[in-house]
Amino acid sequence: xxxxxxxxxxxxxALIFAGMAVVIFVIAYQTVANQLLASLSEELHDTAVEFSxxxxxxxIRDLREEVASESLSxxxxxxxxxxxxAAGNTLMVNHPRTWTHPLPLPDLQGAALQWFDIIIxxxxxxxxxxxxxxxxxxxxxxxxxxxxxxxxLRQIIRIFVWSLLVLVLVGMLVGWLQVRHVLAGxxxxxxxxxxxxxxxxxxxxxxxxxxxxxxxxxxxxxTMLDRIQRLLGEMRDVSDHIAHDLRTPVARIRGMAExxxxxxxxxxxxxxxxxxxxxxxxxxxxxxxxxxxxAQTDSGVTTLKKQTVDFSGLLQDACELFLPVAxxxxxxxxxxxxxxxxxxxxxxxxxxxxxxxLLDNAIKFTxxxxxxxxxxxxxxxxxxxxxxxxxxxxxxxxxxxxxxxxYRADHSRSTPGNGLGLSYAQSIVRAHGGGIEVTSVxxxxxxxxxxxxxxxxV
Length: 458
What we know:
Blueprint: H1 5-73, E1 79-84, E2 90-94, E3 113-119, E4 126-133, E5 139-145, H2 147-197, H3 212-264, H4 271-299, E6 306-310, H5 311-328, E7 332-337, E8 343-347, H6 348-364, E9 371-379, E10 382-389, H7 421-431, E11 435-441, E12 445-453
Parallel strand pairs: 7-9
Antiparallel strand pairs: 1-2, 1-5, 3-4, 4-5, 6-8, 9-10, 10-12, 11-12
Protein name: histidine kinase
Main location: membrane
Domain HAMP: 180-233
């Protein structure tokens, strides 16, 4: 899911949104906690001052009655009060039954106002205490459980967690919708590019309400398409002119040589030269046609005549066609293909030439007594063709250049050919949206692997 830009942007949008919410909560939580604690401390201070004034005017009896009343107002188990004389003796105490831990005494020689934060029982309940020196040198201690304070903070945290979950979900949804709107123009550019890649050069981008940046990108994209279309049109014209200008004189040369050979006879002194001229003219014409077809296929000028083709059937037909040639050369050819058809949307004629070129190469460079194995099947959702021979192989120096036009390795220069076979095979495979790989061990053999998309795979 996170391989798409839309998902990643939506995720980061929600993450940043949640991070900002956490920062704001921490600040708000700390502020609220400090305010609650300050309010509690102020209440304890006011109570201690009130008890001190009451003790000065009414004595220990009035103080005990006021402490009892104050304890009832705090449910008895949350409020602590104690009066110590100047020597530290306890004269009055209100000790909640849940406060089981020992409680600290004030420093008799210390400051007149002393604060204590303590744990009051085994359950970890906390309390805050205040010790205030009275007029006669004694000490009034008051304390309050922080249970209510902690409960309020836990409630705040609980509310925040649920709020954070809602914020994250809303943030992801809002982020996804925003990114979807922003990337809608990019998706349209992608679809247009794919249509153009399939040969529809007349298609143009129209982006409205997608932001100035994407509109400017679309204008630049359309300008580039106009330029490409003009260049391809010019290339098509040049290709037609080249085809006409080269084919015509070659055809004339061949025609004149053939006429002269027929007139003078095969055994005339120059008959062998005339036959050689005819043969080389045919070879030159085939080379010109292949060069033009490679250029047109790579540039997208030529449109593939696609139809649903059984690739397995094409391979079987090609093997049957080349089998007599292989037998004459003393080469054993084996074919492994499943009974199920391997359906592909492609140009049957060009796919036949692809297989024929690869088989022809394998036969050329495999010595007598060698073997050629052909196999076709489905691998990882792709139609895979493998042609493996036990021929002379390709050197490590030559292997990176085998798809270059007119390239021929040193050991193959004595073999008939023009160095265009693999270039043409590569152009056909690329035009069908596939890939071709060649691996070889010099002196042991070569393996060619072709992968083509299988849209009809169930």
